Amino acid sequence: MEYFKHMKRLGEALFELLSEALGLQPDHLNSIGCSKGCSTVTHYYPPCPQPELTLGVRKHADAGILTVLLQNHMGGLQVLHDSQWFDVHPTRGGLVINVGDLLQVLSNNKFKSVKHRAVSSHVGPRISVACFFSGHASLLDKPFGPIKKLISEANPPRYEEFLLKEYFAKFFASSLDTKPPIDYYKL
Ligand SMILES: O=C(O)CCC(=O)C(=O)O
Ligand SMILES: [Fe+2]
């Protein structure tokens, strides 16, 4: 419980910084509910006898707005950059912050969601705790798209508006092998 209180506060602070980085008022992303709707998934990856035959989690970008990830000392998380996989080495007391597909939409592609995966290992277990910020429930029924203040003639919208509830319905009906729901709304 204590951890989630801290996650909520951290989320608010991160969304302030991200708003400023977009050239918006510091409270912009918080005021539209970005730091709400935080859900948590804990992963337990046991030691794997044949790690070369499998992956812990396949390549994907997180579907929500922002993810705060805590991993134990085992390592295994990798991010894709310029078509190459890079290890995200665990740092004691460190957290990994991943931009999700919905922040890519809100920022009209200024922030790019990060493709990542978790590889298996002979040793373990590896444990990770992901807090997914997916936005306040009241956003589900409202049109969602790039922030209007970020749109101009020089920077036209890269996504059409859509309903988050339809987006999440697509997400929950999909697998990591199918195209991510964000792709349906690209302009
Ligand atoms: O276990 C990890 O480090 C990654 C988990 C992950 O990518 C996810 O839950 O979306
Ligand atoms: Fe992920």
UniProtKB/TrEMBL annotation:
Native organism: Gossypium lobatum
GO MF annotations, alphabetized: dioxygenase activity; metal ion binding
Q: Which InterPro entries match?
A: IPNS-like_FE2OG_OXY (IPR044861), IPNS-like_sf (IPR027443), Oxoglu/Fe-dep_dioxygenase_dom (IPR005123)
Q: Which SUPFAM superfamilies match?
A: Clavaminate synthase-like
Keywords noted in UniProt: Iron, Metal-binding, Oxidoreductase
- The protein depicted here goes by the name Fe2OG dioxygenase domain-containing protein
Domain Fe2OG dioxygenase, which positions?
Answer: 34-135
Pfam families with a match to the protein in the record: 2OG-FeII_Oxy
The similarity comment for this entry is: Belongs to the iron/ascorbate-dependent oxidoreductase family.
